[in-house]
Amino acid sequence: MKAISVLLLFAFPVVITVIFPSPYFYVLYDSEPDYFSNIASLYINKHTVDYLHPGLPITYVSNIFLKLTAGSYQDPEKIILTLRLLWLYINILIIYISTTRIANFKIHHVLLLLSIFLMHPYGFYFYEIISPNSLLLSLSVLLVLLGLNVTKSLKYSVWYGIILALALSVKFSALIMSIPLILTFFVKMSFKIKQKKYKKIAILVGVAFVLSSCLFLLPIIPLLPFYLTQWNINFSIWPFVLLGSVGILLFFYKHYLSGIYKNLIAKMNYQDMYTLFSLILFSVSIIVVLFAIISHNSFIGAARESLNVLFLFSFSVLLINKKSFFKFSTHRKLYLFIFTLLITVKSYTNTMMYSKADNYNLLFNKFI
């Protein structure tokens, strides 16, 4: 069973990018054309068209890969499908290594986690396309697990700062991933619980983050002020307002509420409090997805509407990490069946989309 699960996990990218690819020429979400133009411009002209999101790892790593495999491509489709395959394997490897090494997941738990991601509308339709969202999701899984363990070892603190900076270079909304850590530290220090320890960890995380950001964001440091003019202020602020309100509420708990509530909060260990704040964010992301599904006539419309909360689904790794939450955690065949079913449905959907795109292409050719 384990061998089948591993084979299915690493065959998954080939199935949805080589055997049953979604049509690159049928643009339902503009991320892939944008990044393809940046990658092509960097490869040919030595500079990009823009720095969207900013998406630096995608653009520069893809450029290096194309240079190493120069002469292997005759058309744009082959380049796009090859880069899809590359990034899908990178994403899966990040998830697999981080969950098995840090959280001691079994292979069937990894399949369950990927199944949750594919249940998100964006994950179902666009998980494999070249975009910052899938990479940010994978790095977010790693960030969640590092954040859960920062009090266990200083190396986790340093790596948390580094990976947060790397995620920031993919998409600026990655900063939202630090909210559970910041609020947990705020509560612990406001209750004067191991203040020196948490200050030391906070300094390590901050220094690692700042230094790594200077490295990963080097190509766009002069442009950073201009990004403020591009952001959707509503999406940028609402998670901070939500969890900031929770932090303020806990502050008032400390100063004004009864000793029962104080003792309850004070006795929560770091992992439980971090998990609580993380699951609040995960719950908000589910609500956003449900509203998107209800307010759109199509699942694709819901995918586009809710794409900015895909990375918050990474907090679901904490539910799987709590083995007691899943009473059927040993049902490996069930997880394998769910993952296989999702791959099958997605492959069929990709095929239908390709057929539809071909028909549009034929109609356009007749028109001209």
Give a description of the structure.
It contains 17 helices and no strands. It has helices at residues 2-19, 31-45, 56-68, 76-102, 107-119, 121-126, 132-148, 154-170, 179-190, 195-216, 224-227, 233-256, 259-267, 270-295, 299-305, 317-321, 332-367. Helix 1 runs antiparallel to helix 4, helix 2 (31-45) packs across helix 3 and helix 8 packs parallel to helix 10 (195-216). The N and C termini lie far apart (54 Å).
Please state the average pLDDT score: 84
- Strand fraction equals under 5%
* Helix-strand category: mainly alpha
- Low-confidence parts lasting 5 or more residues at pLDDT below 50? 324-328
Helix content: over 70%
Helix segment tally: 17
Oligomer: single chain
N- and C-termini, Cα separation: 54 Å
Report the sheet with the most strands, covering strand number, pairing sense and barrel closure: none
- Basic shape: globular
N-to-C SSE string, H for helix and E for strand: HHHHHHHHHHHHHHHHH
Compute the CA-based radius of gyration. 22 Å
Question: What is the count of β-strands?
Answer: 0
